[in-house]
Amino acid sequence: MKKIEIYDTTLRDGSQGESVFFTLQDKLKIAEKLDEFGVDFIEGGWPGSNPKDELFFKRIKNKKFKNSKIVAFGSTRRKKYSVEKDPFFKKLLESEIEYITIFGKSWDLHVRDVLKISLDENLKLIEESIEFLKKNGRKVFFDAEHFFDGYKNNPEYALKTLMVAENSGAERIILCDTNGGSLPYEVEDIFKKIKKKIKAPLGIHAHNDSGVAVANSIVAVKSGAVQVQGTMNGFGERCGNADLTTIIPILQLKMGYKCIPEEKMVHLTQLSRFIYEVANVIPPNNQPFVGLSAFAHKGGIHVDAVSKNPVTYEHIDPSAVGNERRILLSELSGKSTIIQKLKGYEIEKKPEVIKKILDKIAKLENEGYQFEAAEATFELMVKKVLGEYEKLFKIESFRVIVEKRGRRVVSEATVKVKVDNRVEHTAGEGNGPVNALDNALRKALIKFYPEVKNVKLTDYRVRILHPEKATAAITRVIIESMDEKDRWGTIGVSENIIEASWKALLDSFEYKLLKSRDKKK
After folding, report:
1. For the segment 82-137, what is each residue's pLDDT rounded down to a tens digit?
2. Are 368 and 493 in contact (CB under 8 A)?
3. CATH of 5-279 among 3.20.20.70, 3.30.565.10, 3.30.2090.10, 3.40.50.150
């Protein structure tokens, strides 16, 4: 089984994505998770470019990693400095990191229009930078920036930059599609040509501006690349980098390469969602392999086929990457959907129960409910139909006040909650009525059920049904929540947006509490 090196640049290239921000502690936590997962290289940042990256390298030296090598990133020396006097090179050495990735220009347009130096001067920058680091005991990877554009524009010069890097002692030479504009057939053709000219091991670094970064990475491996650079969840500037959560299972599960320890693959989905959580980014449901909808089935024909043989509509076993099959409920649902959805309830031989549930779904959907994104509300409803519902708290009353204080509009909510014979009467403020209700309810429940502190509301969606009724229209609210392990959706429907939100909010907390109890049984 051929080994393909996985080089993760989430902490550097990934952090350049819009809305992505990592604190120092975030970067250290992610590095530890990547090491546990088994990636080969973790690019930590650019020493000297900002104080946070400098602190990262100081702190990371005290941590012992089992699987990963930490890599520092930098550019070739700047034209106004000798390599010995370039402050960035001083910082690279001070980081005391063994592996260093240096990027240099391989597109003549960039050399002339951006660096504004001659083509030969650029070759000297590459040569001197790599040789200096090698003399100082470092192992150097050379990222040939904009290589594919450079090769298409001036193949002779682009190749020269690689040859200089190879002759200067680069351990790996990485061909970069920095603009993300190259297509798979171009990458394959150019990669094969370069493989015949360069003896040093080659790698690929693809961006996703044409939506083919993963495909470009795969064809590069097929054409001889031994290292793939990318980011978890495809984070990165503009349209992002090649998504390692897609590349790794394709290479290892479908193509027979070894990327990470075999037993670690089942943690892929968990790692993906951990990084989304740390970055405070909502995961896209349709992300391959790790997305919430990656193995979700809605149409009755699909559900029936999957129940008989999962291979009919699933390209891999979801559990291989730590994901799970989901059966969605909608007006398309039939008997087979309900049976599949409720496998744990053993209702296959209870047609009267199935009919009761289907009738309940039809009734609620007629009122405006929709369970495709609200499976937690559906599960609560099923427990009630089956007589397995346990009411853990009762809402005696709630109230919301919205007022303007100076320039601020503030919402304040009070909630009276009864658990057994105890009553908690709490208040909470928020930047809106729902936020205030969430804070007040959470404050009341946490005294009885500490686990609610782990519940986080990640999405809040409002849909107006029958808009022709204007302000009297029915409102559908869907709330998405998550804890340290799971995500779930709940729904509320009412002519009053506050009540619709309140119903969805209550279901979210009830689902969490009942789920916690089910796990303890």
Report:
1. 999 999 999 999 999 999 999 999 999 999 999 999 999 999 999 999 999 999 99
2. yes
3. 3.20.20.70
